[in-house]
Write a structure and sequence with these properties.
The chain folds into three domains: 54 residues, no CATH class; 85 residues, Jelly Rolls (Sandwich); 30 residues, no CATH class. Helices cover 20% and strands 28% of the residues. The protein is built from four helices and ten strands, in the order H-E-E-E-E-E-E-E-E-E-E-H-H-H. A five-stranded antiparallel β-sheet has the order 1-2-9-4-7, with no helix packed on it. Strands 6-5-8-3-10 form a five-stranded antiparallel β-sheet. A hairpin with a 5-residue loop joins strand 5 and strand 6. Helix 3 crosses helix 4. The longest helix has 18 residues. It is found in: Secreted, Extracellular space, Apoplast. It comes from Quercus lobata. It holds the Pfam family Cupin_1. Belongs to the germin family.
């Protein structure tokens, strides 16, 4: 094949590739959410407001059982992150507050402490525990899918921003998974080695039945 033919084919290939590239895919939240994310809004309907989210400016309500609040900026709240492989959340922890053991099946997490002190940690698949008290300006990372937690480590409110490597990272809180559903108490007792009274007490607190 001659050089000019090779160059012509390369030009066609590059032109075809560029035609498939999109700058962004703002989520059409009325469409189905699949493994690749939400379908895209038509570009004519996209505005600058799709790329701006102000929800993390205000502290969350910590008047609850865990004395903590998580304010998400996931794709459902912030359609502009659709397809970009990232999202954010704000964590507010009152004194004594805790984000209980939980996992994000679809994302790793980076925590940046803005105010106060937070004791945070995760458990590896080998059951090794990694715990550290982090302070203003400190950063801690939690690998994808591993159980992790954050707890206020001082007598003052603590605030942090979490960055996650997916626009829809998923969330499963261990305590609610065990005691906030309709799995029978007998099965919970068998799988957790807790006694009947303790299981029923936790189910009553967390809204479970059975």
């Amino acid at each position: 094949m001659k050089m000019h033919q090779i160059l012509f084919l390369l030009f066609i290939l590059l032109s075809s590739t560029n035609a498939l590239v999109q700058d962004f895919c703002v989520a059409n939240l009325k469409g189905p959410d699949g493994p690749a994310g939400y379908p895209c809004k038509t570009e004519a309907k996209v505005t600058v407001d799709d790329f701006v989210f102000s929800g993390l400016a205000k502290a969350g309500n910590t008047s609850n059982i865990i004395k903590a609040a998580v304010t998400p900026a996931f794709v459902a709240q912030f359609p502009g992150v659709n397809g970009l492989g990232l999202s954010l959340a704000r964590l507010d922890l009152a004194p004594g507050g805790v984000i209980p053991l939980h996992t994000h099946p679809g994302a790793s997490e980076v925590l940046v402490v803005l105010h106060g002190s937070i004791t945070a940690g995760f458990i590896s698949s080998a059951n090794s525990v990694y715990v550290k008290t982090v302070h203003k300006g400190d950063i801690m990372v939690f690998p994808q899918g591993l159980l992790h937690f954050q707890a206020n480590a001082g007598g003052k409110p603590a605030t942090a921003i979490a960055s996650l490597s997916s626009p829809n990272p998923g969330l499963q809180i261990t305590a609610f998974a065990l005691f906030g559903n309709n799995l029978t108490s007998a099965l919970v007792e068998k799988t957790t080695f807790l006694d009947d009274a303790q299981v029923k007490k936790l189910k009553a607190i967390l809204g479970g039945t059975g």
